[in-house]
Amino acid sequence: MTAPRTDISRMPRGGFDASLLDRLLQTGLSEYPDRDDADPQLRRQAIEGQEWTDRMLHTHQRVAQCVLDAVAERPDPTVLELGAGRGELSRLLLADHPTLTVTVSDIDPQAVAALTEGPLRAAHRARVRLLDATDLDAGDDEFDVAVFAFGLHHLSPTGAAQMFAEATRVAREVIVVDLSRPPSPLHLVRLAFVAPLAPVIPFLHDVMISSLRSYSPSAIRTLVAAAAERSGTEIDVEVGRLGPDVLVRARRSRVA
Ligand SMILES: C[S@@+](CC[C@H](N)C(=O)[O-])C[C@H]1O[C@@H](n2cnc3c(N)ncnc32)[C@H](O)[C@@H]1O
Description:
CATH superfamily: Vaccinia Virus protein VP39
Radius of gyration: 18 Å
CATH class: Alpha Beta
Number of domains: 1
Strand order of the largest sheet: 3-2-1-4-5-7-6
Number of strands: 7
CATH topology: Rossmann fold
Number of helices: 9
Largest sheet: 7 strands, mixed
CATH architecture: 3-Layer(aba) Sandwich
Oligomer: single chain
Strand content: 15-25%
Low-confidence stretches: none
Bound molecules: S-adenosylmethionine
Distance between the termini: 21 Å
Mean pLDDT: 94
Helix content: 40-55%
């Protein structure tokens, strides 16, 4: 595992070994749904664009399959979904597994209220909670799997390291799926196409921001190493791909 440098808060999104160009390709700006001052219409359009893309690309189905594979050996698996947004992933998990129970959570009170009122309302195997992924109100090993889909890039490096420390504490296995950070030249070309349209198409504004905030595999390994250091444990991590996205599997090394 990559050893964390002293101050993780200063880590570039491309990692400490990022090139100069990669270090320039990041931003402190936020996507519309994360901005309290955002016009509600822009916010809604950005979210709808993302939902349409996810439906077209079967994004949540891929993540759900990954979680189901991880719990295949467990008779009555318990899953914690962090940053669940509209709860589509949890809805699929419940539909595809007859005994799985899920705690569906988000840090956003509005999202939690919508989850409470929405399609999961009648699901007796779902529990909705307001939870901050970086400071989890849950017991050690309470869940078989914790999953965080497309939320990692929303967190600062310090927050992301805290999330890995907390998620690996409360769950035996942690699955994080997020946007993969393109190699810098490709990233630059992509931004050149997207940037002119970002002011007029809210979804593309958020595509641009989220791409600039995405973490490289090297950065993710350093985040996990910082999480291990913070929690005084060993954390095993694999960083791979899930379709076009990055897939991280992490678990604390446990004494048998
Ligand atoms: C891009 S959305 C992804 C939603 C959902 N996971 C999906 O795949 O459609 C990111 C979500 O992460 C949530 N989030 C951001 N920071 C968080 C934190 N510290 N703890 C929990 N959730 C967080 C946001 O409120 C938002 O719902």
